[in-house]
């Protein structure tokens, strides 16, 4: 199964989370981590530019990469609306290395959980390692499936450009042994099924992920729960901040 944001799923992401939207305080968190910096930043899984565009406005020298051409097209349109020039690359992270280039690589909002297998995840981490400069920093958000209930259905309806789009999201499977969840998402326009996609999200234990990062060569790491917000008692997001040493 390949996770892919197609036409309608990308459109819905952009409609519900336009550039500048903060999820649980992540925009302020990334600003505080990155500003002020001199070097280049890579946002892996840039999506519609939700964080990329505000960071670019703060004069961060940032490159965005995403394997979904549909998402890249939306991000490009969002840049044009703001009269901004960005650098966007359409490529799968497993095939992208830019040797010793970036001061920071950031992977916000569960993009890393979308890597379909552990082998692919390790390949991507090795690529990040090579693409970072010496002493460069990797920041990855991982989400935990705390709200997942197999068999539950959620339905949302959006009015976009005069069209009613209904999204039916079925939480299909949770695999406790291999640590992944699968959602089946269907998109209807005028009651006709127009797009359908399964999304597989892999999760990692905190210690397990620190060990994986160490095994690839990353060191001097810390992790932060829910962007430091102590009022949320559920562990939803864990952010790993590790160095290339
Ligand atoms: C949940 S969105 C996050 C977008 C953006 N980073 C944000 O914070 O709003 C995940 C993005 O990661 C991209 N993605 C997932 N797997 C990828 C891969 N293997 N290579 C490149 N991009 C990938 C998806 O296409 C999607 O645009």
Automatic annotation (TrEMBL):
Entry keyword Methyltransferase: yes
GO terms for biological process, alphabetical: methylation
Keywords: Methyltransferase, Transferase
A Pfam family recorded for this sequence: Methyltransf_25
Superkingdom of the source species: Bacteria
Gene3D superfamilies, sorted: S-adenosyl-L-methionine-dependent methyltransferases, Vaccinia Virus protein VP39
Protein name (record): Methyltransferase
Annotated source species: Spiroplasma cantharicola
């Amino acid at each position: 199964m390949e996770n892919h944001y197609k036409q309608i799923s990308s459109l819905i992401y952009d409609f519900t989370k336009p550039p500048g939207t903060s999820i649980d305080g992540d925009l302020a968190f990334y600003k505080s981590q990155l500003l002020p910096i001199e070097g280049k930043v890579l946002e892996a899984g840039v999506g519609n530019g939700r964080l990329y565009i505000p960071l670019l406005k703060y004069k961060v020298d940032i490159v965005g990469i995403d394997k979904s051409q549909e998402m890249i097209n939306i991000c490009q349109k969002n840049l044009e609306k703001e009269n901004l020039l960005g650098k966007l690359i359409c490529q799968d992270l497993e095939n992208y290395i830019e040797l010793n280039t970036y001061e920071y690589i950031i992977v916000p909002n569960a993009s890393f959980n979308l890597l379909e297998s552990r082998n692919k995840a390790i390949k991507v981490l090795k690529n990040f390692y090579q693409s970072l400069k010496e002493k460069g920093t990797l920041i990855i958000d991982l989400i935990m499936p705390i709200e997942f209930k197999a068999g539950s259905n959620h339905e949302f309806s959006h009015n976009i450009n005069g069209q009613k789009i209904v999204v039916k999201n079925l939480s299909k499977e949770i695999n406790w042994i291999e640590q992944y969840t699968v959602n089946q998402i269907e998109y209807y326009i005028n009651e006709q099924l127009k797009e359908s996609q399964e999304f597989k999200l892999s999760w990692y234990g905190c210690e397990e992920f620190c060990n994986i990062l160490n095994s690839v060569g990353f060191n001097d790491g810390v992790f932060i729960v829910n962007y430091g917000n102590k009022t949320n008692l559920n562990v939803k997001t864990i952010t790993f901040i590790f160095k290339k040493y």
